[in-house]
Design goal:
222 residues, alpha/beta, six-stranded mixed β-sheet, 6 strands
């Protein structure tokens, strides 16, 4: 299922940005609101609780902020869970359900989301070739679809501080395997700055600062 809650900003309309500073938002080699889609995979209680590679609360907070960023910039979001229909207590975690309110999350049985036709079709319908991906665990439900997407010519950006593995070495090995396949790791803050790109883009600047404050990047000094 894909969600886009606001139109992507039209940066060309800002009088403060010089025309020659605005690259084509659809063909830019960097991530833009118009050329990428956020894919969120398997943020479920049982999987979250098994993560030991980073602080779980921080990981969940970063995952929620990822979705907030996508919504702020009008980027489509695709969300999926694994085997949640067999256990009502293992649905998408409440914090993400709240951010994706009203969206039917695609539930699958396959560990590899890429092997579910509905997930692949949702990505194809988005028309985006850059996949910003986050999922649990890093070594399985994130690595497998990332490697498959890379094999089919997509650009893949795993958000390494919004994901986790069952052990630190499992997480790092998953990241390494994706890198070797051609993935380009990113972080929450790097993703945010890549979307914003210019503080003269006033439509999104204030919201971006608010999200970064939530992430602890811009602590209030008053």
């Amino acid at each position: 299922m894909v969600i886009t809650l606001r139109p992507a900003p039209d940066y060309t309309s800002s009088p403060k940005i010089m025309d020659n500073n605005i690259r084509n938002q659809h063909t830019d080699h960097l991530i833009t609101p118009q050329n990428a889609v956020l894919v969120m995979i398997d943020y479920q209680p049982m999987l979250v609780n098994a993560v030991t590679s980073m602080d779980r609360s921080k990981m969940v907070s970063n995952a929620v902020l990822l979705v907030k960023l996508a919504k702020q910039f009008g980027m489509p979001v695709i969300a999926s869970t694994v085997n949640a229909s067999s256990d009502e207590s293992n649905r998408l975690i409440p914090a993400l359900r709240n951010e994706l309110c009203g969206v039917e999350v695609t539930d699958r049985t396959s560990i590899n989301a890429w092997e579910d036709a509905r997930v692949r079709e949702a990505i194809e319908r988005s028309g985006r070739r850059k996949l910003v991906m986050a999922g649990l665990w890093t070594e399985a439900c994130l690595t497998f679809p990332a490697v498959d997407a890379l094999a089919e010519g997509y650009d893949v950006y795993p958000v390494v501080d919004a994901v986790g593995g069952t052990t630190a070495i499992a997480h790092l090995t998953g990241i390494r395997r994706m890198e070797l396949a051609g993935a380009m790791p990113t972080t929450l803050v790097q993703f945010a700055c890549e979307l914003q790109r210019d503080w003269a883009r006033e439509d999104t600047a204030e919201g971006l600062v608010g999200i970064l404050r939530e992430a602890g990047v811009f602590p209030r000094m008053d």
